[in-house]
Amino acid sequence: MKLLKTTLVALVLIVTTASCTKDETQVVEEANFGIDVNLAMETDWQMADEILTLVNEYRTSIGLSALKRDQQYASAYAVDHTQYMIDISKINHDNFGVRSKALKDRGAQSVGENVAMGYTKAENLVNAWLNSPSHRGVIEGNYTHSGFGVIQNDRGIYYFTQLFYRK
After folding, report:
1. DSSP output for the chain
2. 24, 70, 127, 140: which has the fewest Cβ within 10 Å?
3. pLDDT digits (tens, 9 = 90+) for 97-116
4. Dihedrals phi, psi of 20, to nearest 5 degrees
5. Model-level pTM?
C-alpha cells in the first residue's frame, strides 16, 4: 500500500508541474492519457459556437485562417479540465502538459489553451481574452482546430477551457 501511495504521489507531482502557454515544451511522463470522447457532448455548444465565431472573426480580420471546431478529443479534454476547475472552484492550467501530450499523440503539432470563468456572454469573454496579451497570443497562434469545455457549475457560473491545436 505504501508503494502504491508513493507511486501515486510521484505521478501527481509529474502531472501537476506542467504549465501552459502557446506550446508545451516540457516532457510529460504520462504515457497514454485516455479519455471518453462522449465528454465533449457536455459542453454548452451554443456558447462554444458563439466563442468560436468571435475568435474566427478576429483571426480572419488580422489575416489568419479560421479554426475548425473539434467536437471530439480536444473538446473531451477541455470538458475534463473544465469539470476539474469547477470541482476546485478555481481557474487554472493544471495538467496542461497531459492534455497537450494527449493531443500530440493524436497528431497535433502544437497546443495552446485559454481558460476563464464567470462570463455570461461570449462577446465579453472573447474581448477579455483579446485584451490580455498572453490570451490574445494563443488566439493569434498558428493553430487549425479548437475544442471547448464550456460548462456551468451548480450555481450557474460558467467555466471555460478552449484548447487550440495545429494539425
Report:
1. -HHHHHHHHHHHHHHHT---SSS--S----S-----GGGGGGS-HHHHHHHHHHHHHHHHHTTPPPPEE--SHHHHHHHHHHHHHHHHT----TTHHHHHHHHHHTT-SEEEEEEEES-SSHHHHHHHHHTSHHHHHHHTSS-SEEEEEEEE-TTS-EEEEEEEEE-
2. 127
3. 999 999 999 999 999 999 99
4. -135, 135
5. 0.80
Give the Cα separation of 83 and 159 in Å (integer). 8
Separation between Cα atoms, residue 73 and residue 26, nearest integer Å? 21
Do the beta carbons of residue 70 and residue 146 sit within 8 Å?
yes
Closest by CA to 75, choosing from 105, 110, 102, is 102
Nearest to 86 by CA among 124, 131, 42, 135: 42
